Amino acid sequence: MIKYIPICAVISFLFISTYAHAETNLDSATRQVGNCSTKYQQLDEKFINHATYATPKTHLVSNTDQLVATLKAAANTDLILLTPGSYDPIILRGFRKSVTLRSFNPHDPAYLHGLRLQDTANLTFDSLVFNYSFVRGNSPTHARPFRVERSKNITFKNSEFLGDTAKTGTPHDIDYPTGQGLFIYDSNRVALICNHIHRWHRGAVFSHSSGIKVIGNELHTIRSDGLNFSAVQDVLIEDNFIHDFERSPDAGDHADMIQFWTRNTKTASQKVIIRNNRLVAGAGGFTQSIFMRNEKLDQNRNATEFLYKDIIIESNIIKNAHTHGITIGQANGVLVNKNVLQRHGIAADPSHSQGQSTPKIRVHPDATDVRITHNQTTQLPSTRNPDWVIHGNTRPKPSF
Fold this sequence. Notes:
This protein is mainly β and 400 residues long. It contains three helices and 33 strands. It has a 29-stranded parallel sheet that branches. Strands 1-2 form a two-stranded antiparallel ribbon. The chain has a two-stranded antiparallel sheet with strand order 15-16. The relative contact order is 0.08. Mean pLDDT is 87; it is low at 1-34.
């Protein structure tokens, strides 16, 4: 049933039958909320338009109907506290008030079973569980229960994105992680801070958006890709811990911890910083680590409007067992600095040679204004443009 609530713009809420309260171990998420939220607690405030508002109020709600009514009446800077329990999926259209939705008790959080934001602004979601339950007939790979479209100033922090495994599909799908944890499209100034994202086909997907901050998150038990980006600008990916994927070995997935691409895009990705992340294969098998292929220029060398621009990859620790440790396609303005790339023997495929299973730094020879400095890696690009600067790189210490 859809309810329409008149405010300055139309807000519509879609209610679906209540899902069973899923059990989950929040120890890891709780651990992150400690130091992580303190370090970054002021970051999301930069996204909010601080006009002169009335004194903020705190509201307590315990079910979906109360949440709807409270959102309708809320004023700018109001805080809505959700008591423990399950809340039905909602769709918000045209909501523009600066409001925070937070669990009343972060150690016994509220569960939200679906969210879609369209033409919405200035919302913060704090200490919630975004919980997806696979339903027969859903796509094993493309279900998107939590979506942000044509919106701005949206923050998700201190929360858990808890996925599920597929119950139907091909043998390569069943019992493997399914769906996309968070999907962002055509949006501006979206922050993902100090969240725990696990049991998904893909952790988070950002497309045709700008002003993106992905900071202090933990991602694991991912079947395919941790973080995906296409046609994005002004991106900061920092202090994340991505580890222990759960690949479907016979599905043909090319798992990446952080991946950019240009296929099916209309603009280039630029002004990207990937810094201080830990990318560790762990017991989950090998993956590609940071992979930025440029499909547009692979197909047409003259399509220079799709060059990656102003790319900084620095101070990341990569322990994996695939040759694509840091791979960058055609680009202009690249700094690869102070990264450590080590082979993770436990995650290696026995059929691969040591060379195939050792992460390396690769940059397309057509890239320009490239600096590769002070990294620890077994291999640097063998073919390079004359204007590149490469110095201070050493071999890494032996790993396990």
